[in-house]
Amino acid sequence: MQGKSWSTPIDTRFIEVIKIMVIGEGGVGKTTLIRRFVTGEYSDQSMTIGLGFASKTMRTDGGKTVKLQIWDVGGQPRFRLFIPSSKGGARGILLLFDLSRPSTFVRLDDWVRLARSGLPPEKRVPIILVGAKCDLARHVLAVEARRFASRMNLDDYIETSSKANIKVEEPFGKLLRMIVPASTRT
């Protein structure tokens, strides 16, 4: 995102701010997914340098308004050091890999460990695995990704394409439903 941030108009009636982190290898499509989700626009992005931020106001299934604060963490190794310190207060994580680049799938073990590092078992944060760029030639099968998500005890697996606007809202919506307890949705 390099100094860019996007947000929807702020609704001052929101009930809470929910911090979500979007992590994964560099170039997997984190920033384009966030931009498409927040603004509805697609554009090729250069790699995020450090951290980027975006926000979007949403309604829960029960009609309550929340503000998602979305943290976009650069995927290059030198920026991974930001994850432990910026993870504080995060209520959910989207872990992305590029379906057209198997090397990004192979490194997911490290990303899961990094996402869970320093968290006590009772402080479980939902993590959704997202296979990005499903519009391109596939080099990772859905069954492999689901098997990985199950083995690592991740909460779900979703395939998206920011460019083709396929299931862009689904990972954020599912994560929100996991974070906001059913008792507060009604």
Quick description:
With 186 residues, the protein is of the alpha/beta class. Helices cover 28% and strands 26% of the residues.
Helical stretch tally = 7
User: What is the residue-averaged pLDDT?
Assistant: 83
Q: How many strand segments?
A: 7
Our estimate of the beta-strand percent is 25-35%
The number of domains:
1
Structural class: alpha/beta
* Helix and strand run: EEHEEHEHHEHEHH
Q: Report strand order across the widest sheet.
A: 1-3-4-2-5-6-7
Q: Unreliable segments (pLDDT under 50, ≥5 consecutive)?
A: none
Q: Which overall shape is indicated by the principal axes computed on the Cα atoms?
A: globular
The biggest sheet, with number of strands, parallel, antiparallel or mixed sense and barrel status, is: 7 strands, mixed
- Distance from N terminus to C terminus (CA atoms, Å) equals 36 Å
Oligomer: single chain
As for the CATH topology, it is: Rossmann fold
CATH class designation: Alpha Beta
Task: Give the C-alpha Rg.
Answer: 15 Å
- CATH architecture tag: 3-Layer(aba) Sandwich
CATH superfamily: P-loop containing nucleotide triphosphate hydrolases
The percentage helix is 25-40%
Describe this structure in words.
- This protein has helices at 30-39, 82-86, 102-106, 108-116, 142-151, 170-179, 182-185, and strands at 5-7, 16-24, 51-59, 65-73, 90-98, 127-132, 156-159.
- It has 186 residues and is an alpha/beta fold.
- The chain has one domain (5-181): 3-Layer(aba) Sandwich (Rossmann fold).
- It has a seven-stranded mixed beta sheet with strand order 1-3-4-2-5-6-7, sandwiched between helices.
- It is globular and about 40 Å long.
